[in-house]
Structure formats: structure tokens, C-alpha cells
Amino acid sequence: MGSRSASGVTDDRAPNALSIFCECGREDCLGKVTVPSRVFLRARKHAGWFIVLAGHYADGMGEVVEAADGYWVVGKQHVTRAARPGSMVA
């Protein structure tokens, strides 16, 4: 779950935003999400948090930590950073 991550490309439509792959973990999901860079950085500080397209919640992800237009931040509240799987750049 959550092996795909940031493309590192700034989205021109929104200042300080990143376009990232949905981290829902579904093999068939190729969705991309635009999130503010502050949301991306906050999610990366929590090993068990993932950014997914709104509605792409899967069992075992924990709870919805933040819901915004087009994306959700989901995860478990108490997971250490060392436990976060490696990221794959788009």
C-alpha cells in the first residue's frame, strides 16, 4: 500500500502545489492528485499517512485525517517515520 509518491513537479494551476500519484495502493489506480505542498510535507512526517483521491480509501489505511476537494489524507495516527515504506518517484 502506498508505494507510489510525489512526481516533484509543481502544478502551474496552483502556487505551491504538487501533482502526485494516488497512494491508495490499488494496482489499477493511476490517478493523480494535486495537493498543497504543506499538506504533502505534513503527510510525509507521519509514516502511516497516505494521500489518496477522494473515495480511494481501502481497509487497513486507518482513518481520514483530512478531507479536501479532490483528495483525502488517510492513515494511522501512531506510526513512526522509520516504518514508512520507500517512495517511488513518478
Shape: globular
Instruction: Summarize the helix and strand pattern as letters.
Output: EEEHEEE
Provide the gyration radius in Å: 12 Å
**How many H/I helical runs?**
1
**Helical coverage, percent range:** under 10%
Distance from N terminus to C terminus (CA atoms, Å) equals 16 Å
- Uncertain parts: 1-12, 80-90
Described by strand count, sense and barrel closure, the largest sheet is: 3 strands, antiparallel
Strand order of the largest sheet: 1-2-3
The share of residues in extended strands comes to 25-35%
Describe, in plain words, how this protein is organized in 3D.
The protein is mainly beta. The chain has one domain (6-83). Helices cover 9% and strands 34% of the residues. It is built from 1 helix and 6 strands, in the order βββαβββ. The protein has one helix spanning 37-44; strands spanning 6-10, 17-21, 32-36, 49-53, 63-68, 71-75. The strands form 2 sheets. Strands 1-2-3 form a 3-stranded antiparallel sheet. Strands 4-6-5 form a 3-stranded antiparallel sheet, covered by helices on one side. Strand 1 and strand 2 form a beta hairpin. It is globular and about 35 Å long. The two termini are 16 Å apart.
Write the SSE topology.
Layout: E1 6-10, E2 17-21, E3 32-36, H1 37-44, E4 49-53, E5 63-68, E6 71-75
Antiparallel strand pairs: 1-2, 2-3, 4-6, 5-6
Features:
90 residues; mainly beta; 3-stranded antiparallel β-sheet; 1 helix; 6 strands; globular; disordered N terminus; disordered C terminus
